């Protein structure tokens, strides 16, 4: 919530991690390599092509960015 406006605002994942974790403690946990089409998905376009297109359109390679850090000095992992 943005106190200056009294309503919720949109945050990026890095902005949210900055809010949650103690300053200077966030260490990004890299994305886990995805299996190539683990379900054998069949469609009009190959699954790998759809995944690459989605990544090109959205940027991140993971759906839930994660970071290790501390909150009030206590170690934690945050998924945002």
TrEMBL record:
Residues 1-80 form the CoA carboxyltransferase N-terminal domain. PROSITE patterns: COA_CT_NTER (PS50980). Residues 1-42 are annotated as: Disordered. This is CoA carboxyltransferase N-terminal domain-containing protein. It comes from Kitasatospora saccharophila.
């Amino acid at each position: 919530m943005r106190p200056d406006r009294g309503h919720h605002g949109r945050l990026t994942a890095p902005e949210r991690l900055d809010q949650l974790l103690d300053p200077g403690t966030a260490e990004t946990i890299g994305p886990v390599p995805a299996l190539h089409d683990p379900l054998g998905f069949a469609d009009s376009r190959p699954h790998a092509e759809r995944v690459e297109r989605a990544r090109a359109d959205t940027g991140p390679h993971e759906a839930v960015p994660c970071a290790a850090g501390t909150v009030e000095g206590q170690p934690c992992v945050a998924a945002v």
